[in-house]
Specification:
mainly alpha; 22 helices; globular; transmembrane; Dolichyl-phosphate-mannose-protein mannosyltransferase; transmembrane helix; membrane
């Protein structure tokens, strides 16, 4: 029987359970479903029947598999998400300790992260974010626990398996094994001695990624992880949609009409092509969704190629900046009672999140310089690049709901900023010495 002696973990678990019981029992006894939710139900039904015949390839199967694991019951998946959320908070605490952050600071930072409302409300939603957060937390925990230069065969296999689960839930994270491999390779990992071990990190994530892409190829005719890909690429063209090749006027004309309509009606401009699609603006082509999305993708590639400045402007000043916006998904009208209290709490917490995100952005030059100068990959540098790479890649691929991409990575931002403060700010070091009952080095030297 596993006995956990660290009392801080007992407090973290108890607090996590208590907060969820209070919120869901007294204020928000609601399962939040969104337009994305039905996609997971549909795929879960296909998997349950052991047949993908007729499936349109919208989603990867990870979340749908968890729906089935929960017995196909919505209450079951919500309970599972809450349990994984509590375990994730323990992983955050252990990650901070592995980075040699003092126990009390680690506990207080974890305590802060546990209380964030958007984390708990995502757990009440039929969306991938909370389960993605758990498995990403697990990956980061492993990277913080083991030195990248001392990974054994079994430990790399372990990491590869967790990465594979993360990728089958959210294919976007296929970039992670490439990032880890690249950073290790550039900074002193002995390739000849460890090539087999190093390649092992790719095997399982690539197997599930390409395996699912092949399944989509068989069902839709397109070798992609999701048939949304082309439409997502076209979203990045929204502000220069009319500059596409004339052969795509059948896309351009309704796209521009619905863009201007979105602006006039104060709707989300990033979703203009979705509005056009749902209004049947492209139906006259009589294309299936996979075929239509593929056409959108070809249009996007040609338009971006011919307008690189507009694309870069779009990526940097819209998609990338939106990534850093904290987001919360809740059915606000279902909060009974205490609507205003929750709104005030969220605004306060949002200010804290903005603080961490802004500091993280300010650290970008520092960590890029650190990576160039250091002979080895430091753990905090690796964590930084996990977030920074995600911020750039998601901005390059799509525009719209970019803040949802950042939510599962938020805890890494907080941990990285905390690490930086502890290591570089004297007032934080004073607290560190006080809380760990250590004599500051300058005082030790004066005693000799």
């Amino acid at each position: 029987m596993l006995i956990i002696k660290d009392r801080n973990i007992h407090f973290i678990v108890a607090l996590g359970v208590l907060l969820r019981l209070i919120i869901f029992a007294l204020f928000y006894n609601h399962i939040a479903e969104y337009p994305d939710s039905s996609d997971y139900y549909i795929l879960a039904e296909h998997i349950k029947n052991f047949s993908l015949k007729g499936y349109n390839g919208w989603r990867s199967p990870g979340y749908s598999l968890f729906l089935l694991l929960a017995g196909g019951k919505l209450r079951g998946i919500i309970v599972l998400q809450n349990l994984l959320g509590i375990i994730a908070s323990v992983l955050w605490y252990r990650t901070l300790l592995h980075l040699k952050i003092p126990r009390k600071i680690s506990f207080y930072i974890t305590f802060l992260m546990i209380t964030f409302l958007h984390v708990i409300f995502y757990e009440s939603a039929i969306l991938t974010e909370s389960i993605t957060l758990f498995f990403l937390s697990w990956v980061v925990y492993l990277l913080s626990k083991y030195s990248v230069y001392k990974f054994s065969f079994l430990k790399v296999l372990y990491l590869s398996a967790v990465l594979a689960i993360l990728v089958i839930i959210k294919p976007f994270y296929i970039y992670l094994p490439f990032l880890i491999f690249g950073m290790w390779l550039l900074k002193g990992f002995h390739l000849k001695k460890n090539l087999g071990k190093l390649l092992l990190i790719y095997i399982l994530p690539l197997f599930v990624y390409f395996g699912w892409s092949y399944a989509n190829k068989l069902n839709t005719g397109y070798f992609v992880s999701t048939t949304f890909l082309g439409l997502n690429m076209a979203q990045n063209c929204v502000h220069f949609a009319e500059k596409g090749p004339k052969q795509y006027n059948w896309i351009i004309e309704p796209y521009v009409v619905y863009r201007e309509k979105s602006i006039d009606e104060n709707r989300d401009v990033a979703m203009s092509i979705w509005y056009a699609y749902h209004q049947g603006a492209f139906k006259y082509k009589n294309l299936s969704f996979p075929d239509l999305s593929n056409e959108f993708g070809e249009y996007a590639k040609a338009t971006i190629y011919n307008n690189p400045r507009d694309y870069i402007k779009q990526v940097v000043f819209n998609s990338w900046l939106n990534f850093w916006e904290p987001s919360i998904f809740w059915k606000y009208d279902e909060i009974k009672p205490g609507k205003k209290l929750f709104l005030i709490l969220w605004y306060l917490q949002k200010s804290i999140l903005y603080f961490y995100r802004i500091i993280f952005i300010c650290l970008i030059p520092y960590y890029i310089y650190r990576f160039v100068v250091d002979k080895k990959v430091k753990k905090d540098t690796l964590l930084f690049f996990i977030v920074f790479s995600a911020s750039v890649l998601q901005a390059m691929v799509t525009y719209g709901s970019n803040s949802r991409y950042s939510f599962p990575l938020e805890f890494i931002m907080i941990i990285t900023v905390t690490y930086f403060f502890v290591k570089h700010f004297s007032w934080f070091v004073v607290l560190k010495n006080k809380w760990t009952n250590k004599i500051p080095k300058h005082k030790q030297s004066n005693n000799h």
